[in-house]
């Protein structure tokens, strides 16, 4: 890990663009492709999640490539609490470079979450109850992506507790508990690799 790498020149552009931001820089993706057969299970309405993630010490960045008609009003209502990066994300190379520049990505099960994991960046995946086999059961981490934390529904379509848990943890990270960006297993693995 990581097994992906963002293009350095594009990363440099994002670093320059975001260099004056002193808050925790958090990318968010709340919905996948609406045509995906499992979209109703994996995607979350913007109004259900975004206002709750706006908090002191955090600057949100939308990595949502295609917003749905109802998302526009939600994004507008949050004002400077969230910056929409979509107009600058022309390709996966642009998205990878933006992710490399952020402190954390919070996403539903989409390509952006997999990309963040492949880049070795801290990423929190918000998972539905009826999930893809890759996420196994009863785990808060992923064997595929050591830097990923999993936040799971306890029953079908019950996003409230998942979002509440992510909001609570994000507030703790913003207050200085940096280690919470990573799954507990990540520090153990990093320590094992550092040992002689």
Please describe what this structure looks like.
By secondary structure, this protein is α/β, with parallel strands linked by helices. The chain has a single domain, classed as 3-Layer(aba) Sandwich (Rossmann fold), CATH 3.40.50. Helix content is 38%, strand content 15%. The protein is built from eight helices and six strands, in the order H-E-H-H-E-H-E-H-E-H-E-E-H-H. It has helices spanning 8-18, 39-42, 46-53, 71-77, 92-101, 111-118, 160-174, 184-194, and strands at 24-29, 58-62, 82-84, 104-108, 123-127, 148-152. It has a six-stranded parallel sheet, sandwiched between helices. The longest helix has 15 residues, at 160-174. The protein is globular, with a radius of gyration of 16 Å.
Give the CA-CA distance, first to last residue. 19 Å
Structure summary, number of beta strands = 6
Backbone structural class: alpha/beta
Strand order of the largest sheet: 3-2-1-4-5-6
Q: How many domains in all?
A: 1
Residue runs with pLDDT of under 50 for 5 or more positions: 191-196
- CATH topology (level 3) name: Rossmann fold
Q: Helical residue percent?
A: 25-40%
Kindly report the oligomeric state of this protein. Answer: single chain
């Amino acid at each position: 890990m990581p097994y992906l790498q963002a293009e350095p020149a594009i990363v440099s552009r994002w670093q320059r663009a975001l260099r004056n931001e002193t808050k925790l820089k958090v990318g968010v993706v709340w919905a996948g492709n609406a045509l995906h057969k499992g979209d109703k299970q994996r995607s979350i309405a913007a109004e259900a999640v975004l206002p709750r993630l706006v908090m002191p010490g955090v600057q949100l960045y939308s990595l949502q490539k295609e917003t749905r008609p109802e998302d526009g009003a939600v994004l507008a209502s949050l004002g400077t609490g969230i910056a929409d990066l979509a107009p600058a994300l022309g390709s996966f190379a642009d998205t990878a470079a933006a992710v490399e520049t952020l402190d954390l990505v919070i996403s539903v099960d989409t390509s952006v979450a997999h990309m963040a994991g492949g880049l070795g960046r801290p990423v929190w995946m918000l998972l539905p109850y009826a999930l893809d086999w890759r996420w196994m059961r009863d785990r808060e981490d992923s064997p595929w992506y050591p830097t990923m934390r999993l936040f799971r529904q306890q029953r079908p379509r019950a996003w409230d507790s998942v979002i509440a848990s992510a909001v609570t943890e994000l507030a703790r990270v913003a207050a200085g508990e940096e280690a919470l960006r990573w799954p507990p297993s990540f520090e153990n693995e990093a320590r094992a690799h550092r040992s002689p």
